Amino acid sequence: MSITPPAGADGPTLVFLHEGLGSVRMWRDWPTRLCAHLGCAGLVYSRQGYGQSDPVPDVRGPSGQTDASRHGRLLPDYMHHEAFEVLPSLLQVLGIERPVLLGHSDGGTIALLHASRWEVRGCIVMAPHIMVEPISLQAIQQARRAFEQGALRERLAAYHADVDCAFWQWNEVWLSPAFASFDIRADLATIQAPLLAIQGFDDPYGTLAQIEEIAQAVPHTRLLTLPACGHSPHRDQPQAVEHAVADFMACLASRRT
User: 57 falls in which pLDDT band (50, 70, 90)?
Assistant: First the structure.
């Protein structure tokens, strides 16, 4: 989904990267409202297997790829693949240069990885994962129980054409033994772009250590920690997040002068 900028706007495009169970629709109207407030263009898309995108054949089977379409389970480096192969190709096809990346959860991790290799105007991450914490695995195990035995499958079905594909490709890779060593802290040191990292105090999927470690690796990082906030800062504390993003974008604009 493309968000058209106001007439005369010449700022960067804001590219929204969704969470592990997200999609275009799961962002609701927040990207449109945010871009209208900022006066910038936007791009919102669903990764393969999410939302209305092409499903992943045999999503719980052996991993593989035919041409540009993958099949089977996600591999532990799936976020590297999205950041280093899928996103650059998409931006090139759409003619988007030096965007501002705004990623949530898995999308935040993808944004960080992309910014570590490609030039971007800025990078905004909400509840990113740069390493695996026990709290994350506990929450993902609880999500599996809620999907199999509770109401989570029904709730997610409103946002995904193939809800089983969307859920299992995320859940199984995170709970796989091979993913336990996932850690991108060494990749972060090469990020040169301005960076805003946001985390809620009550996030069941990660602690403040996630963004504190980002700030250690990237000293120019701006940190925003939010009370009464879980895993979705843009929904739990929308005003605080929008204010921080607007201030961040204003600083980016001032760097051009």
Answer: confident
Higher pLDDT: 2 or 69? It is: 2
Cα–Cα distance between 166 and 55 in angstroms, integer? 8
CA distance 200 to 208: 8
Residue 257 reports pLDDT greater than 70:
no
Q: DSSP string spanning the chain? A: -EEPPPTT--SPPEEEE--TT--TGGGTTHHHHHHHHHT--EEE-PPTTSTTSPP-TTTTS--EEETTEEESSPPTTHHHHIIIIIHHHHHHHHT--SPEEEEETHHHHHHHHHHTTS--SEEEEES--SB--HHHHHHHHHHHHHHHHSSHHHHHHTT-SSHHHHHHHHHHHHTSGGGGG-B-HHHHTT--S-EEEEEETT-TT--THHHHHHHHHSTT-EEEEESS--S-HHHHSHHHHHHHHHHHHHHHHHHT-
Query: pLDDT, tens digit, for every residue of 89-145?
Result: 999 999 999 999 999 999 999 999 999 999 999 999 999 999 999 999 999 999 999
CB 101 within 8 A of CB 136: no
Q: What pTM does this model have?
A: 0.95
Average pLDDT over all residues of the chain? 93
Residues 6+ apart with CB under 8 A from 50: 18, 21, 22, 23, 160, 166
Cα separation, 39 vs 45, in Å, equals 20
